[in-house]
From TrEMBL:
PANTHER family: COPROPORPHYRINIGEN III OXIDASE (PTHR13932), RADICAL S-ADENOSYL METHIONINE DOMAIN-CONTAINING PROTEIN 1, MITOCHONDRIAL (PTHR13932:SF5). Residues 1-231 form the Radical SAM core domain. This is Heme chaperone HemW. Its main location: cytoplasm. Keywords: 4Fe-4S, Chaperone, Cytoplasm, Heme, Iron, Iron-sulfur, Metal-binding, S-adenosyl-L-methionine. PROSITE patterns: RADICAL_SAM. Belongs to the anaerobic coproporphyrinogen-III oxidase family. HemW subfamily. Pfam families: Radical_SAM (PF04055).
Length: 364
């Protein structure tokens, strides 16, 4: 099974911590939509010959797209893939941008999952990172979506935010749980270079919790969610029942994916390639009937084996133990409560996930 990713790079306002490829140039939406449609058309042979299981509109803020443009993109895709076989169709949304009209349209177009960038239910923390919505906006959006029949809603939460304490994090988790959310992505704040957040931290305008506090926040969040029945199935992802994020899980299973849009990535077999991250160049190339690919990488068997092991160790599947290999490393991980063995697989604990990169380097 394989996944399709479509990148919508527009935002009303870029958050202070964000280094994703996104732009406030919403006036370019129509031009970009036509370029996306052209790219989909140019890739029609690949789209027709593979079996696709998921579609994911990410960003940016895909929920900013006009319904007319969103419909055009989906209709073009529907010319080449069978939407009856799509198990999961997700759109990312900012709570401030969803309306009853949009949600009804999403239903008509077979979108069956929403991913909401809430980040926190604390107003002071939201303002500190430049989010445009309020806690009440997020609560109202969830209730509105549920009222429209969306039963698969994921919420993103961030730990390690400016002004965040264990108490405010627990409040955000309690509100999330009380809303009946069945999937949570729980990320640590990343302070990226040359972002407004980094500049505010360097100038002492803002401070963030130190590394030890951030680790404690993560572990407390994991404990909270597991106690309430969530399955911790990937470093930062938690699901109730069978509500795992199928699209992202395809990535972690090392399945193929095809990306459309500026800065998107694709992997087909041993070939991985990336589109340009320049919006004007993306549109220009497609206007000339050329794919906007900026780089292509052919993966060796050794590279693919490493990536498969690395991704597997980041999930609840864990890593199949190779008899006689890394015995001392494995013993040390278990002794330090960073990992455990279940059947013939080594799996990381929550503490282990915190240092997963170091563990991966030792084992893979």
């Amino acid at each position: 099974m394989a996944g399709i990713y479509i990148h919508i790079p527009f935002c009303l306002k870029k958050c202070y911590y964000c280094d994703f490829i996104s732009f406030p140039d919403i006036e370019k939406e129509n031009e970009y939509t036509q370029s996306l449609i052209k790219e989909i058309h140019l890739q029609k042979d690949i789209l027709k010959t593979k079996e696709w299981s998921t579609v994911f509109f990410g960003g940016g803020t895909p929920s900013l797209l006009s319904l007319n443009n969103l419909g055009k993109i989906i209709d073009e895709l529907a010319l080449y893939i069978d939407f009856n076989k799509i198990k999961e169709f997700t759109i990312e949304a900012n709570p401030k941008t969803l309306t009853s009209e949009k949600l009804q349209f999403y239903k008509v177009k077979n979108i069956n999952r929403l991913s909401l960038g809430v980040q926190t239910f604390n107003l002071r923390e939201l303002k500190a990172i430049g989010r445009i919505h309020t806690p009440q906006d997020a609560i109202d959006t969830v209730q509105l979506a549920k009222g429209q029949g969306f039963d698969r809603i994921s919420i993103d939460l961030i730990y390690g935010l400016p002004f965040q304490t264990l108490e405010t994090l627990m409040e955000s988790l309690e509100i999330t749980y009380s809303l009946g959310i069945n999937h949570i992505s729980f990320y640590g704040l990343q302070v990226e270079e040359d972002t407004p957040l980094e500049r505010m931290i360097l100038s002492k305008e803002l401070t963030i919790p130190d590394e030890e506090i951030q680790e404690n926040l993560y572990l407390a969040g994991v404990e909270f969610l597991i106690k309430r029945g969530f399955k911790h199935y990937e470093v930062s992802n938690f699901a109730l029942g069978n509500n795992i994020a199928l699209h992202n899980y395809n990535y972690w299973l090392y399945k193929d994916y095809l990306g459309f849009g500026v800065s998107s990535y694709s992997k087909l077999g041993n070939k991985r390639y990336a589109n340009t991250d320049n919006l004007d160049e993306y549109c220009f190339k497609l206007n000339q009937n050329n794919l906007p690919i900026k780089e292509v990488e052919i993966l060796t068997n050794k590279e693919m084996e490493f990536e498969q092991k690395m991704l597997s160790l980041r999930t609840h599947r864990g890593l199949k133990l190779d008899e006689g290999k890394n015995i001392e490393v494995v013993k040390d991980l278990i002794y330090n409560e960073l990992a455990y063995i279940e059947k013939d697989r080594l799996k990381l604990t929550a503490k282990g996930y915190l240092v997963s990169n170091e563990i991966i380097n030792k084992l893979c």
